[in-house]
Amino acid sequence: MRSNHGGDIYRNRVTFDFSVNVNPYGMPESCERAIIDSLKNASCYPDCEMTELREKLAQKELGEKAAAENVIAGNGASEIIYALCQALKPKTALVTAPAFKEYENAVQIAEGKVLYEELKEAESFALTERILERITPELDLLFLCNPNNPTGQIMERELLIKIAKRCEETATWFFLDECFLPFMDDEEEFTMKESLKDFPHLMILKAFTKIYGMAGIRFGYLLSENKEILEKIRGVMQPWNVSIPAQAAAMAAIDEDEFVLKTKKLIREEREFLLSEMKAMGVEIIGEPKANYIFFKGKEDLAKRFLEKGVLIRSCNNYTGLGEGYFRIGIRTPEANKDFVRIMKEILA
Questions:
Q1: DSSP SS3 for 103
Q2: Distance set, CA 93 to CA 34, 175, 201, 205, 245 (Å)
Q3: Which residue ranges make up each domain of the chain?
Q4: What are residue 202's DSSP bridge partners?
Q5: What DSSP string describes 254-302?
Q6: What is the DSSP track for 145-202?
Q7: Region 253-269 average pLDDT
Q8: What architecture does CATH give domain 16-26+257-348?
Q9: CA-CA distances (angstroms) from residue 144 to 64, 171, 233?
Q10: Is the predicted pLDDT of residue 2 greater than 90, yes or no?
Q11: Closest CA to 86 of 245, 253, 232
């Protein structure tokens, strides 16, 4: 089972790729240098345990007392999603519609049944407390993404706490994807990291793919206070799953706080610019974007018309719960965004 995603620059003639939602700056220079330096060890096997890296991640995310055992690392976030489902073998899993396609694919490959919490366009595809009714003792696993992909809508921490409590009452595993939170100025108001100690069934997915521009290097990780479930997931992952260059880049990225702050500022300013320009053109923006991408509606052939001009945007027609006419663009550099606006004006003229 293979999903269609953005970023297919290999089969399309592309000048500007707006179909992916990764850092416009790309990787920090320190990560590039770390990758190059690591190549002298390319003839060696990677470190399977990654103890130092996992400990450094745990302490950065969860505090000085956190240990490597609170973290597992993977070849991008997707590997962890699939490993989770192979480890748990959920009979039933609940995902929102729309949401990242790999959640449901991973469940289906593990021969589980996927249930859908259908988000409503009239509510800007926002999650509501109605989902609490869907979390029952018969439910094995719940997937949520905050902010949601592709809609960009944020889930308030108050609601997430209620969901986590309900998952504990029903012994439902709660898998929360926070890969896009680092792009938000107020991410600390929404993250559930501090609540991990209160909810043994809660797991939080993070990745360097997006915020550090490492989509081609691949590095993701899972946080939990439940060390037993983390070991169970590790048990179904292949050995040497994170390459030496990826480990080196991740180690360097952890200390790049200034790079993240610079990125947040860019995203904030460029999101306002794109929203203002697109609204002025009459583009229907759905909800109020909070992350580094914008979700909107347009004519069914919009992606094709953009591609004819060398611009790749993400058609969302393969997301469960959506169809033709829904699109997502990632926020890029000021220069690229200005070109996007110019080209969109030509298309809509």
A1: helix
A2: 39, 10, 14, 17, 34
A3: 16-26+257-348, 29-253
A4: 174
A5: TT-HHHHHHHHHHHHHHHHHHHHHHHHTT-EE-S---SSEEEEE--TTH
A6: ESS-TTT-----HHHHHHHHHHHHHHT-EEEEE-TTGGGSTTGGGT--GGGGGG-TTE
A7: 97
A8: Alpha-Beta Complex (3.90)
A9: 27, 16, 18
A10: no
A11: 232
What pTM was computed for the model? 0.95
User: What distance in Å separates the CA atoms of residue 275 and residue 267, rounded to the nearest whole number?
Assistant: 12
Residue found by looking up tokens 């080209």 in the block: 343
Amino acid at 286: I
Q: For residue 206, give the nearest of 266, 163, 271, 146 by alpha carbon.
A: 146
Phi–psi pair at 315, nearest 5 degrees: -75, 130
CATH of segment(s) 29-253: 3.40.640.10
pLDDT tens per residue, range 23-74: 999 999 999 999 999 999 999 999 999 999 999 999 999 998 899 999 999 9
71 SS3 class:
strand
**pLDDT value at position 280?**
97
